[in-house]
Amino acid sequence: MDSNNLIVFNVSKRFFGVQALDKVSFDLKKGEIMGLVGENGAGKSSIIKILAGAYKKDEGEIYLDGDNFSPRDPYDSLAKGIAVIHQERQLIPDLPISMNLFLDRLPEKKFLGLIPVICGATLMKKSIELLESLGIDLNPKTPVSRLNAAEKQIIDIAKAVSSEAKIVIMDEPTASLEPKEVQMLFTFIRKLKNSGTSVVFVSHRIEEVIEISDRIIVLRDGRVITVVGKEETNAEEIIKYIVGHEVKSLFPKETAQIGQEALCVNNLRFKKVNDAISFNVKAGEILALTGLLGSGAGHTLECLSGKIQFHDGEVTMNGEKIEIKIPADVIEKGIGYVPDDRKNEGIIAEMSVEHNILLPNLSKVTRFGFISRGKVQALVEPLIKALNIKTPSPQTPVKNLSGGNQQKVVIAKWLASDVTILLLNQPTHGVDVGAKAEVHKLLGGLVKAGGSVIFASSDLPEVVSASDRVIVFYKANIAADLDACECDQEKVLKCSFGL
Asked: How far is CA 288 from the centre of its chain?
């Protein structure tokens, strides 16, 4: 880290009167890994998009290797040495690794001296050289679809490095990775660092940020709160900087009276090959489903929500059998579902916060086919306040809200509908530390009122801390049914691997 690779000085950005960034300043050294953390809406996305050339700054200066940096667009930013690795993979699954690495600059030769075609030999040579230089032991001919999540992430990063990026910005790179895959990615990131490439690592997973970063920038309300070395801080202090006050627990667990069986799943099969799955949840109980990605926890919730059909089995609610063929079947019974893909399945992004909350609750605010404005306000505004949904107004489009606030809108619509059982798939995925505590406080309120919660999560601290019971899946079967107060993360992880 012998020189400043990037200097950001007093950069500000406003959107429709909202101050997204307020005089943000920091520097990034050559070969440094810089962690970037903050709540949803703190300004992380804004500064990333300015560096990527997607937004123009309103004020301030940026210098890259001593030269003024003001990219015209993302292509210009990449050409000047800054590459952004987004959460959504920028790869084509059916193409081999080699073509994905050089998709925008495939080597050509002239067929019959006239027709340009891809030069396979040159492409293979360049791909092998790139992969070997980065220590990636993968065959360039392998289709991307055959790679695991960590390998896909690494190829996405290698693609950026192949464009001679000086700085690689990674946005939530570990969100969909298993613990073993995270360490595989971290090994690769450290190789980038040793080669002189600078990395900006953006994540809500504070422990991972501290593990991989040299320094950490904390943003809050569009301002830099602190820049601190990893050796000088800890997770509790970083969380305090992020939210502005001490957070006693990211996953607060309310004490609720456990009652009678509320939902019972008997011999459910969502694949023809897996064993029958049977479990129950009681009134006042929070049940966590977990396991490695694809192990069956999320699929089970999708079956119970009516999103996908299950092959065999029976579901009873309060002792009575219920038919689940479409989502409307479970909604009618008082079961709500919060999907993991909230942007495409949980909200209608163009509609307002108010309208999204009203979607399953129109009967509560209408009379003779007409909507009562007074009833709408009486239903929506207390929920926005109680859930601390940060929005300029109830009429603001949901797409303008941060990820954590979008998640709270999805939960709000079900709380407004008086559900007795709430299903949540990855409830705090992509949600900042402050919002995590708020989401689980809401779930605690639901079970204290006699409701039941079943959530699927790959976040082990969340699984162990926020539930009464933990069901661990392994290869689409139940590997263990554990009392949360008698298990720890290590035990859950061992069960997840079938040990």
From this structure: 18
